[in-house]
Specification:
The protein is α/β, with parallel strands linked by helices. It folds into 2 domains: 175 residues, UDP N-Acetylglucosamine Acyltransferase, domain 1 (3 Solenoid), CATH 2.160.10.10; 44 residues, no CATH class. Strands 1-3-5-8-11-14-15 form a 7-stranded mixed β-sheet. Strands 2-4-7-10-13 form a 5-stranded parallel β-sheet, with no helix packed on it. A 3-stranded parallel β-sheet has the order 6-9-12, with no helix packed on it. A hairpin with a 4-residue loop joins strand 14 and strand 15. Helix 4 runs parallel beside helix 7. The protein is globular.
Length: 219
């Protein structure tokens, strides 16, 4: 099958009518150079005011020295204004004061009483749509196939193929019945070769589970 679908190493995968790449949408994998930010093939982000540093725009508190990671799977879609508030943004809040004295005192911060313990990684699954202005909070775990509504503030664990919205985000509905979700998690179409995915676009986007199961047995 002949296709013009861009290589996952393409920074600007959308070509405008004048032949120029659309700078407001990037495949994140080639656009991110950060030791704690890991992103899968074909995941893209969009911004009306494209930043020079996409990692800093999307995850401003994820530093090269941060103990936590931000992990995003394949084929995710990240809308304008979405932001990941990773664990290095946290203050200690189990004592009488939340003030980070160690930051301003100079020297090593490890073990200082005013600093929180390292937080867990933030992990986003595959084929997750994160809507405009959403905030993904430290350590959130959003599973495959989820939809995060515009402006949602998401923390904790989100089950596969859930739609969440609000502040704090709540599950609005499950996108499919449990049997279908289990089948989709078994199929994992996002790991198929891109040629196979494009050939079966109608089955993937049209919810033809029987066709996907048949294809999965042959891939």
């Amino acid at each position: 099958m002949t296709t013009n679908f861009p290589n996952p190493g393409t920074r600007h995968p959308i070509t405008l009518p004048d032949g120029q790449g659309h700078v407001g949408t990037v495949f994140l994998k080639p656009a991110i150079d950060h030791p704690r930010f890991h992103v899968g093939d074909y995941t893209y982000a969009s911004a009306f005011a494209p930043p020079e540093d996409w990692a800093a725009c999307l995850a401003p508190y994820l530093f090269a020295f941060s103990p936590e990671k931000l992990v995003i799977g394949r084929f995710c879609q990240i809308a304008d204004g979405a932001m990941f508030i990773t664990s290095s943004a946290n203050h200690r809040y189990d004592g009488f004061s939340t003030y980070p004295f160690a930051i301003f005192d100079g020297g090593a911060m490890d073990g200082r009483p005013s600093m929180p313990e390292p937080g867990r990684d933030t992990v986003i699954g595959n084929d997750v749509w994160i809507g405009q202005g959403a905030r993904i909070m430290p350590g959130a775990q959003i599973a495959d196939g989820c939809i995060v509504g515009a402006g949602a503030v998401v923390s904790g664990n989100v089950a596969p193929y859930s739609s969440v919205a609000g502040n704090p985000a709540q599950t609005i509905r499950s996108r499919f019945d449990p049997e279908t979700i289990a089948a989709l998690l078994d199929i994992q179409w996002w790991h198929w070769p891109i040629e196979v995915i494009l050939k079966n676009e109608a089955a993937i986007c049209g919810a033809d589970l029987a066709a996907l199961q048949h294809i999965a047995n042959a891939v």
